[in-house]
Amino acid sequence: MFNLMSNCCSWVSKLQQPLRKITVLVVGLDKAGKTSCVRGMLRVPPGDVGPTHGCVRTELRVENYLINLLDMGGAPEVRGSWREHYGEAHGIIFVVDSSDRQRMKEVREALVDLLKHPRVAGKPLLV
Ligand SMILES: Nc1nc2c(ncn2[C@@H]2O[C@H](COP(=O)(O)OP(=O)(O)OP(=O)(O)O)[C@@H](O)[C@H]2O)c(=O)[nH]1
Ligand SMILES: [Mg+2]
């Protein structure tokens, strides 16, 4: 009985908490699986996804968080545009296709480039 009351109180207090908005940037090489990961998080069936152009924004609600997911294109010629969003990102997901061993050097270069940016320093990073 005490547990039930305690669970109810914590549930009610969670409901009363204000919605917290955060922004998560999703980057990585082209065809790494960024859009597929985002679709997985949104519980959308995988399907056939083409290359992402620019920045695709979607919202995901997790408990009291409203997460603004920024899915970026990963082609070499558009990677420069990632940095336009480093400032607004609270955290970064760097997607790697670990089965694509031939591109590990390119992955390393893109990750090193990302990490040395001052607006990325100190922010949570999930690889
Ligand atoms: N076998 C397999 N295929 C996957 C997986 N994840 C993604 N794919 C396929 O790989 C291809 C590229 O996936 P995307 O999610 O579009 O990759 P992306 O990183 O968003 O690529 P860009 O938008 O071009 O930067 C698609 O054809 C997906 O269906 C996976 O876990 N396993
Ligand atoms: Mg994509």
Automatic annotation (TrEMBL):
Can you supply a Gene Ontology BP term from the record?
receptor localization to non-motile cilium
Q: Keyword check for Lyase, yes or no.
A: no
Keyword entries, A-Z = GTP-binding, Magnesium, Metal-binding, Nucleotide-binding
Name of this chain's protein: ADP-ribosylation factor-like 13A
Record GO cellular component, one term: ciliary membrane
* One matching Pfam family: Arf
Residues annotated to bind Mg(2+): T35, T52
What does UniProt list as this organism's lineage? Answer: Eukaryota, Metazoa, Chordata, Craniata, Vertebrata
Residues engaged in binding GTP: G28, L29, D30, K31, A32, G33, K34, T35, G74
Q: Does the keyword Transcription apply?
A: no
Q: Which organism is it from?
A: Sinocyclocheilus grahami (Dianchi golden-line fish)
PROSITE patterns annotated for this entry? ARF
Q: Name one GO molecular function term.
A: metal ion binding
